[in-house]
Design a protein that fits this description.
4-stranded antiparallel β-sheet, globular, 252 residues
Length: 252
């Protein structure tokens, strides 16, 4: 299993964080409806779409509320432990989800097949990354086991392709959410606030990790890569069950 260590602290029910608690509670209720095996497909898809939009809007609202407040928070750091098999490929999914939400992901290979992903970002964004990564990893690992092909090269390439496709979709959703927020507000404040937050995150990364190197990923199985992209195109960005047949189960 994959888990965030340590878990993010609970939200204090004060100030703008009341919004955080209310939105995340609503998202989790929508996910429960979307993932329940007895939910009709149309109702499940509708619940998933609403949850997807709420997730995209959540971080923007948090950023705007914080920018308008007197107190200024700083980026936080947490560590995600990614277990085998295919840990290095799974870190690509963690990085894709993180990048789409203004969080930086630094991969550290362990002594064995496990890996660690150090996440640097604001608390609200880290919560979104945790929620989405857990959901999407379940979808990816369930889908790859249902493919007619198998083998390490195929499955590794599948997970990488899945991550690439999902990352592109998440970034597009974020751009749409920013545009909607700016249209509603009648100003370009959302993009500017998010850019300032990303600058703060980049500064925190440079301070903690001054000697980072870019990792290059190679894929030896094109059919696995393309199958992963097709699965990523069909994946729900808000729920971990119905797109791959059923509710949340152990990913083994």
């Amino acid at each position: 299993m994959t888990a965030l260590i340590p878990r993010l602290p609970p939200i204090d029910e004060t100030g703008s964080q009341v919004l955080s608690a209310n939105v995340l509670t609503r998202v989790r209720k929508l996910l429960a409806v979307a993932e329940h095996p007895n939910t009709p497909p149309e109702e499940a898809d509708s619940a998933a779409r609403v949850a997807e939009r709420l997730i995209a809007k959540y971080a923007i609202d948090e950023a705007l509320l914080e920018a308008a407040s007197d107190s200024k928070t700083r980026p936080e750091t947490t560590t995600m432990v990614v277990d085998p098999p295919y840990a290095s490929a799974k870190t690509r999914l963690a990085g894709a989800v993180a990048s789409a939400h203004g969080v930086r992901a630094i991969t550290v290979q362990g002594g064995g097949e496990a890996a660690r992903v150090i996440l640097v970002g604001f608390a609200a964004d880290l919560r979104v990354v945790d929620l989405l990564y857990t959901s999407l990893l379940l979808q990816a690992t369930t889908s790859v086991r249902r493919q007619p092909e198998s083998g390490r090269a195929f499955r590794r390439a599948f997970l990488i392709g899945f991550a690439a496709e999902v990352g592109e979709r998440l970034r597009a959703t974020r751009v749409e959410a920013v545009a909607e927020a700016e249209q509603a507000a009648g100003a370009a404040s959302s993009a500017l606030v998010l850019r300032d937050r990303e600058h703060d995150v980049d500064e925190a990364v440079r301070a903690q990790f001054p000697h980072l190197r870019t990792m290059r990923t190679t894929v030896s199985n094109r059919s696995g890569l393309m199958a992963g992209r097709r699965s990523g195109a069909d994946a729900s960005l808000a729920t971990g069950g119905n797109q791959v047949g059923g509710g949340r189960r152990s990913i083994g």
